[in-house]
Amino acid sequence: MKYPVTAGAARSGEDAAAVSKATSDIGASRTLWGDAWMRLKKNKLAIAAAIWIVFIILVAVTADLWVPAVLGDPNATAADMAAASRLPPSLEHPFGTDNLGRDVLSRVIYGARISLIVGVVATGISTAIGLVMGALAAYYGGVWDTLIMRLADIFLAFPYTLFVIAMIAVIGNGIQNVFIAIGILGWPQIARVFRSAILSVKENDYVDAARSMGASDVRIIARHIFPNSVASIVVYATMNIGGAILTESALSFLGMGVVPPDPSWGTLIQTGQQYLQTEPWLMILPGLAVLTTVLAFTLLGDGLRDALDVKMKDA
């Protein structure tokens, strides 16, 4: 015997299905980073940029294992310089040779190592300083906020590249000084971003609860505020690595960065521009290395920004 399905039973079944779907949705999006990874995978440009960055890192890290044997020592001049200098791209020298007979591709690969180190270390320095300054300004406010933000305004009032050049002129050339100059002068942007992020979360109930339970300011910032503000810092720091690489290349192009004969993308471009009309590959190919790497960090940063934006969750 068949019994009719009542409206209440149908409604109950719909509720059960809704609860089941909600439960599965919760399981699929357990954390902010899990959601972000799912959205990032849909961004083809960001994934392509990440693959390129990983490729550049692997090539730079493993360079000592194969570059000297396959392409030659990047700093060794040719024995017969007249015959080996400024050769066009070929199977033996895919990027050609420079004016001293050195393989350009080997110098580009070792230059990638220097550029990546500068980008990561300089960004690490500026991020560390910016996080401390932004936390002090946003959490304590008042005089701290005024002093730190006005100091940031003073730094930002100067053109960034000219400010870096002036600092390098004072402390001298060299890779260590490039770290210091780019790292120290890059903190105001990080501080502003982190300050804004903290201001948006510091008045939440869980922060008030931690404060009422006697948690110290350092613990509140480290355990409650920072984890909920770190997404914007990850995005900005990723883009900032590309900016630091570009700044280092500009300094080396002007003769104020990496000291020759150590290879740097900026010095390769500076050398190649002398032969732009006759051997354009000497400048164009290192320039493409800078362009693609900086663009990759920018595209990855854009992808991370979209992926970490909770407003994009249902998009």
UniProtKB/TrEMBL annotation:
Subcellular location(s) per record: Cell membrane
GO BP annotations, alphabetical order: transmembrane transport
Boundaries of every ABC transmembrane type-1 domain copy: 112-301
Transmembrane segments: 45-67, 114-139, 151-172, 233-260, 280-301
GO cellular component: plasma membrane
Main localisation: membrane
Highest taxon in the source lineage: Bacteria
Membrane association type: Multi-pass membrane protein
Entry keywords, A to Z: Cell membrane, Membrane, Transmembrane, Transmembrane helix, Transport
Family named by the database record: Belongs to the binding-protein-dependent transport system permease family.
Protein name listed in UniProt: ABC transporter permease
